[in-house]
Design brief:
about 100 residues; alpha+beta; extended
């Protein structure tokens, strides 16, 4: 009987973690891991009048930040998730956005 109850508790825990993940707004930056990501949460929270989070979940790589995950936001540097040599213009065009100069895809 304990096996079924343990399975149910595990499923409930996974469901809660997934719902929390879905509720976070991803805030993407490009090449932002060294300057923008570390200061953005504090600045954004101040401008929006939100309380500062006490203990965000931080993932660092070298001297930069890959992710700062908070209750409602997940700050990410896209350069950590794309191939080498991809510049901003190429990244934007890949996802059918306007080029850096504002012209269509």
């Amino acid at each position: 009987m304990g096996g079924v109850l343990d399975s149910y508790k595990h499923i409930a825990k996974v469901k809660k973690r997934f719902q929390n993940w879905l509720g976070r707004l991803p805030v993407l930056g490009f090449n932002s891991s060294f300057y923008d990501i570390p200061i953005l949460p504090e600045t954004l929270f101040h401008e929006l009048g939100l309380p500062k989070e006490k203990s965000p979940f931080v993932i660092k790589k070298g001297g930069g930040y890959v992710s700062i995950c908070m209750e409602k936001f997940n700050f990410l540097d896209v350069k950590n998730f794309i191939g080498p040599g991809v510049n901003y213009d190429k990244f934007v065009r890949t996802y059918n956005g306007p080029d850096v100069d504002g012209k269509g895809a």
